[in-house]
Design brief:
Helix content is about 50%, strand content about 15%. By secondary structure, it is an alpha/beta fold. It is globular and about 50 Å long.
């Protein structure tokens, strides 16, 4: 049986933290291993974690007292780089969305999302996919359509890498891509790693965004 997804929650509102905690406890595939009210304390903890306590997913609010969630993302990526970051916030500000994804967040949800949507998003980013609030996704696509095309990376993507990138853009996670292409998840992960290296990005949303901006993928498709 697959181990539950380990989750760190960084949220300063006790009432909302309790809602998320109850939802996670009711899910057999999720395990809340830690929760914090500030980014500073969470980051201090992140530097001292044992391997078995490293979260698979960090649920991160952006507007925190002291260091903001946005400011903390690069530090989380430094201290626990294998942890995926799922932003869970009230902010639909364009600059916050862009900054969070550019800094390495694998997902961006608004707090208006249902508990079911939050749990599905956790599963998606834990599986290596990207999860975006529908309104956020529409903003990103509209924004990409208005951006000038930039020069394509020097290292071009192979046919298989392009195929996988297209499926990532369709919202598929690694397991779904593996099933669709009839290859192993390990092979998919290998190609995804090379896609990130060639595009010089850290995660799926950034890879998809850069692919649109460079013309590798078409925003009209």
């Amino acid at each position: 049986m697959k181990d539950p997804i380990r989750i760190m929650l960084v949220e300063d509102h006790p009432a909302y933290r309790e809602v998320i905690e109850r939802a996670i406890k009711r899910a057999t595939n999720l395990n809340l291993v830690s929760q914090f009210g500030t980014a500073e304390i969470a980051l201090r903890n992140a530097q001292e974690l044992r391997p078995e306590s490293v979260p698979d997913v960090i649920l991160l609010d952006l507007h925190l007292p002291g260091m903001s969630g946005l400011e903390s993302i690069p530090w989380f990526k430094k201290y626990i780089p294998k942890s995926e970051i799922l932003v869970l916030t009230q902010s639909d500000n364009e600059s916050d969305i862009h900054a969070a994804i550019s800094s390495g967040a694998s997902g961006y949800l608004l707090k208006s999302a249902t508990v079911t949507q939050i749990k599905e998003a956790i599963q998606t980013v834990a599986d290596g996919g990207a999860s975006l609030d529908p309104n956020v996704a529409r903003f990103i696509l509209d924004k990409l359509k208005t951006l000038p095309t930039i020069e394509k990376p020097e290292r071009s993507l192979s046919e298989r890498e392009l195929e996988i990138l297209t499926l990532l853009g369709d919202g598929l996670v690694k397991k779904e891509i593996a099933d669709k292409l009839n290859i192993s998840i390990t092979t998919v992960a290998y190609h995804v790693k090379h896609i990130y290296e060639k595009l010089n990005v850290m995660n799926a949303p950034a890879a998809i965004a850069k692919a649109f901006k460079t013309g590798i993928l078409s925003a009209d498709e």
